[in-house]
Structure formats: structure tokens, C-alpha cells
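In this section we walk through a basic example: taking a raw amino acid sequence and producing a predicted 3D structure, encoded as C-alpha cells. The instruction is simple. Fold the sequence below.
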Amino acid sequence: MPSAIDTLFRELEISPILVDVGATGEPPANWVELGAQATYVGLGPAASPSGQSMIEKFRTAHAIEKIVTTHQAEQVTLHLMQDCIYSSLLEPNPRAMTDFLEPELVPAGDESLPATTIDAVVADLSLPGIDWLHTNINGLDVPVFKTLSQNLRDGLLAFDTCLDFVDLCVTQESGVAEYPEIIREGFWLSRSFTGGPVKMRRDSLAMLQQLDPAIDERFVVNYHRRTPGWIFVRFLRTAEWLEQREAPRRDYVVLWAFAMVDSHFGFSADLLVAYERRFGADEPLRTMKAETVARLKALKPKATIKSVSRKYLPAPLRRGLKSVLKNIA
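The resulting C-alpha cell sequence is shown next.
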């Protein structure tokens, strides 16, 4: 049975455009619900519809096996790593190669590959714009975003990217300094997930392993905590941004759908209030209101230590746990 989002897109003849830069596998999972009416564009040397079961769920899909750069070029040099997920157009940082146990930045040669820009792809495919841009391209995420034409940037409703705190590559721009500018452009931070390396040099590991052979590389990589090295972030446009630019009804509906698949039902409700103020209480609004209420009501209460202990522990143990937590605090 089609979802409410799919039905709404179909009735209003909306086909959101989703662009995945640095595609190496399946598209972002929460794009599936948008897929039946959406156009998907995967960009990257490993972009290919073969082996990607989700590709067939999109109304239209394009796989372009080219590297996205900040400038137009026919060929570029990709610096390969043994763990290909860390390959980059930028050279690996020698300091990072020695300071971190994981990721292990072991060079595996260079490869010349065809290149393009996002603007060129949009023009070649005759796309009207981009609604949701997802990038993961090792040190060039924010620079690539900054090189978008103004028309493309103004049309974005959602933006996934990576902000770096450690320099795995030479001359990379972390993007962290650009966070205030992204917010000033009418975005708000919807989601974040932090990843990072194991900060330990190999001679230090060797010293520890001499003291205890059980402390080997596999043990440290699997169990040692990571230092914050990069943060994957999702930005959505604000309701105020839509109002200020007098955005069309379509943009309100698409941004509402994006918020819904991102489980931001409160923000979805904010958009509905702004929508009704602009366009009145029409049939699409009634559909969106009903779906927002249904998903909100389907939420489950989050388990807390207090609620779990009340349900499963006898009173004496609950009192003891309360005392321990109080002392820790």
C-alpha cells in the first residue's frame, strides 16, 4: 500500500530530486520512502545500479561513475588507500598516517579517473534543481557544497555532509568553520553522528603488547574508544526560510516529507502551521496533518533507568540504585 507521502507526491505531481555524491553502495536508507516518485542520482567511481537493490525503488535513477570535484576537469588523480573508503583526491596527511591506529592510511597507488561537477551533472541531466544533497567525499564535502551555483544552493531543502575535526588529508578544509554560514543560509541542524579514529601510534601498541600479548591491534580497534574525528550532519531548511523567499506550495510539501522520513514530527507540525498560513486549509494539508498525527501517536516512550527499574526491580533494589546514582551525580 502506498505511503501517505507517496500518494501526496503522486497527486501533486511532485518528483523530488535526490543527489548522492560519493555513492559507494545503497542510497541513504530513509530515501526509500521517497523513492516511488523521486529521481535519484548517484555520483562516484563506485556508483552503479548493479548490486543496489534500492535503486529499482526510485521512479528514475542515474548512476554516474565520475568523481565530483570543485572545478571542471576531464580527469583527476585519486589517491588510493588499502581501505578504499579513505581514498581521496587529497594526499594523505603524513601525521595522520602515524598518529592513528585506525583508520590505517596505507597508500595503494594513484588512479586517474573521469571527473565532473554537480552543476555539470544537473545541466547534463536537465534537472530543475536538487532537493536533497548527500555528500561523503573525504575532505572535500563542504568545499564542493560551496562551489554550487547560487540557483542550486537556493533550491536545496536538505543537505547531508561531513564536518572534519582531524585532518586525514593534506590541505583539507574541515568545514566546521562553515557551520555558522550554513545556518545563516536558512538551515538548521537536524541530525548528527560522530565517528573517529583510534589515537595510538604503532610503537605504543608494540610496547603495550610486550607487556600483555592480549593487547593486539584487533583488540584495540574493536574495544578502544574513538576520538571525535568527524561528524556526519543533516541540515533541513527552516520554515522561516520558506516564508521569506515566498516558496511555492511544492517546497513546503517536499520539506514536510523530508522532515517526516527524518522522524522530526514536531518540525513537520511547524511546517503545517506555516503552510496553512500561506495556502489555507486545502486537501493536501489535511493529508499531511493526518499523517503527522498518526506518526506522532505511533512513537514509543523512551526507556529510562527510572522506568526500567520501576518495572523490573523490587523496591529495595530500586532504593539502592537511586542511592548509587545520586552519589555518582
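Looking at the output, two observations stand out. The radius of gyration is 23 Å. The first strand starts at residue 17 and ends at 21. In the next section we compare this with other chains.
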